[in-house]
Amino acid sequence: MKPRITITIILALATLLLAACGGGESPAPASLDADESSTLDTSYDNALAVRNQLALGTLNLEDTPQAVTADQAATLIPLWQALRGTMNSGAAAQAEVDALLKQIEGAMSAEQLSTIRAMKLTQGDLRAWAQSQGLSAGTGSGGGVGSGQPRSGQGLSPEERATRQAEREAQGSNSGGLSKALIDAVITLLESK
Q: What pTM, to 2 d.p., does this model score?
């Protein structure tokens, strides 16, 4: 399992280097302290963590002029996959996670990040997204309400099925399970471009 994560991280870094050489979109500044973002704010009440703001914000951008482009998606997919890998391993250093988040921000345009910042995404927004996907999103842990476990679901799209599968794999921590489901939804979206 470790070689697979290492390969994913190496591919993510190689993709970032190629994207940096390509000149594309206006990147966010890369010199950030841990748990900070150059453009996203986590200081307001019930603010989502930067990771979840980027993920939910990316999904929310989809039907707007700031939607992620196919070129950006090619850069972002391995970065989000590497971030998902750090969540699966449970052994990733915070510095590694922060570096991936900075790279994701760097692959997005200033306009996209500004739009996500203006959304002021909260825990309530994450719960609303989860409910729209048929996931329970209360508090607590275990297999009942609030565990991030799926409710009944019929006629689900492939994205919704991937989200539900990720949620089933993430039994335990509610916020961690929803974060994994959110990241899986972003990866599914990006792969569709």
A: 0.65
